[in-house]
Amino acid sequence: MCAAAAVPGSPGDGPALAEVLIVDTSRSMLFPPAKLHAAKDATAAAVRLLPEGTAFAVLSGHFHAAVVHPGPDQPGLAVAGPGERAAAVRAVRLLDADADGGTAIGTWLDLARRLLKDHPAPVKHVLLLTDGRNEHDHRAAMTLETALDACEGRFVCDAWGIGDDWDAELLLRITRRLHGRAGAVREESELTTSYEELVTALLGTAVPELRIRLTPTPGTVIRRVKQVVPGEQELLPAEGPGRGTEYITRAWGEEVRHFQVVLAADPTGRERGEDLQLAAVEVVVPDFGHPVRLPRPRPVLVRWTDNPLDASRRHPGVHRQQLYHRASAAVARAYRAWLRGSDGRAVADRELARALHLAADLGDPQLLDALRRIEDTPGGGRIRTGLKDVDWQHLILSSAMTTPPRHPAAEPPPDPGVPPDADVLLECPGCGWLGPADSVYCGGECGRRLNGPSA
């Protein structure tokens, strides 16, 4: 299953934004000084891009968090305008790292949550930059896990690494919980351009929230729903109307995302060899003041079979996701073996070769490029000498990003037997449930057959 945002209005005519920029000012940002200089340059560039009227704040984070702009004595967020942007840039330029400051990211996120909590902007976003490993979490006023619990669903967070000592798993942990994306720069000088691209894309956000609504037929159980492209992300359920369950996805621009739904049903007594409906799926958007063009609801169909060959066939999208899981696991094993030095060299080489083979099968050029950066010679399948830990962190981030097939299958031609009005909803005569016009069974309370020979 995939979903794509339909942008209302003209490009850039998205909903209002509230933005919080967090700069790591822990002790480690002093070594080398280029990290802090790059962080200040990039943050200033991001502030300058904020449109008139955008609510924003800049925070510094070390063992504690502090408001850099609009200042600790100013309640709430600043509102972007020529004067406020210039004042924020001046405040950023004066930032310095705390010589006694550690890293406690939970306190940074919690301050961002408190600033954004009562703001009415439909899109709330945090851009976090760190060079460290959250080493003082156990002593912090709020641990990262507690902060993530409090922040989940409150805003979207992108987390970036800079320098040579950031932790890819930490960035992924934050962004998977807060529906953002993790990134990093190899050179400090690249950060400003990366921030400008990220903020420009953010300003193109058209829809603050899309919901995937699943209505199972009687006897069907929803096991899980997750995003699989552009990165894996578990979606949490919320109550929907009737028997439906809704899964929230956040902050959409012009993009396509793929999702995987896992359902369970008992085939006992079901017909063999014909399509049966297990659920109806639709995309809904809360009212935020703009009309959005949505795809029509669709049935989720299965065909029960006694043929083991048929039952063993996997959907191409599921197979692709399994390849990504195997590639990511091979990268993780290679890294753990590399940490053991010469004792793990053979295992590390073997796992690198495995990951390279899987990346080639996937046809993912970004993952292949990241793997070849740690390969000794092209095609050799051996890890080069002189690697740094940060080289592996970049690879771990790359292995967590997923892509759809380069040549997705074309949409099937329309069925000449389906009347032109098949896009309309069908009302069940038994219980009044509204669902896709091609539903085989009612997704409401009665579960009766709606289409087919015995309807």
Q: What does this molecule look like?
A:
- The longest helix is centred in the last third of the chain and has 24 residues, at 316-339.
- Helix 4 links the parallel strand 6 and strand 7.
- Strands 2, 3, 4, 5, 6, 7 and 8 form a 7-stranded mixed beta sheet that branches. A 5-stranded antiparallel beta sheet has the order 12-13-9-15-16, with no helix packed on it.
- It is an alpha+beta fold.
- Helix 1 runs antiparallel to helix 2 (82-93), helix 1 packs parallel to helix 6 and helix 10 packs antiparallel against helix 11 (389-400).
- It has 11 helices and 18 strands.
Main traits of this protein?
5-stranded antiparallel sheet, VWA domain-containing protein, VWF_A, 455 residues, alpha+beta, vWFA_dom_sf
Biggest sheet architecture: 7 strands, mixed
Mean pLDDT: 88
Question: What is the terminal-to-terminal distance?
Answer: 27 Å
Q: Ranges with pLDDT <50 over ≥5 residues?
A: 6-15, 408-424
Strand content: 15-25%
Query: Strand tally, please?
Result: 18
Principal-axis shape: globular
Helical/strand content category:
alpha+beta
Rg, Cα atoms, Å: 25 Å
What is the percent of helical residues?
25-40%
How would you summarize this macromolecular structure in one to three sentences?
This protein has 455 residues and is α+β, with helices and mostly antiparallel strands. It has eleven helices and 18 strands. The two termini are 27 Å apart.
